[in-house]
Amino acid sequence: MKDIVRDGDPVLRQQAQNVSFPLSEEDKQLAADLMEYLEVSQNPELCEKYQLRAGVGLAAPQVGVSKMMASVLVPAEDENEKPIFKDVIINPVIVSNSVQRGALTEGEGCLSVDKEIPGYVPRAARITLKYQDVDGVEHKVRLKNYPAIVCQHEIDHLHGTLFYDHINKDDPFHREDDEVFIY
Ligand code: 4LI
Ligand code: NI
Q1: Would you list the domain boundaries of the chain?
Q2: What residue's CA is closest to ligand 1, atom 37?
Q3: Total Cβ atoms within 10 A of residue 29
Q4: CA-CA distance, 112 to 122, in Å (whole number)?
Q5: Is 157 part of any known ligand binding site?
Q6: Which residues does Fe cation bind (predicted)?
């Protein structure tokens, strides 16, 4: 957690750079580190031992590297089942958004934002995401609900946007028409 860049650092507001393939050794290590943080943070014993905050997504700018790379690890409700989504997404692009909007009922948190910021963060309820994995293989996936929200939050980081930028300043708990609540 000591290595996580906090809000106020300009790197969090920069547009990240595209990543080229094959990955350099440095970029491979970065990808592994981003996923390892999430894995360790989601393990209750290790999380406690290293004094981490649990996360389901972590973007490279959050460790001070302005590159188009983020790890996403959304565990299944039953921890013995395989994760709902697990990958390092590189050069991700949202190629389509649903008209329907959705927001996490409890609001969003971010490893780079220490204080809780109340309010709904309206996003697309479903997205089609294109990205490359660490091997350079192109993926095009349709995501809904929680994994869709997490990927949008992480991709925002790659464009210098933080979740609270989307909260309605005058009415943080404003509900849009036809907005679905997630989790
Ligand atoms: C322990 C072990 C309640 C409050 C519910 C915890 C394993 C908030 C939700 C986790 C909230 C795991 C999360 C995100 C929210 C809140 C992220 C707990 C880790 C829930 C992830 C990126 C927003 C993602 C659902 C202010 C660090 N994560 N909760 N938002 N979990 N976690 N975000 N919202 N209210 N943030 O934070 O990783 S998208 Cl998996
Ligand atoms: Ni974040």
Answers
A1: 10-182
A2: 109
A3: 11
A4: 20
A5: yes
A6: 110, 153, 157
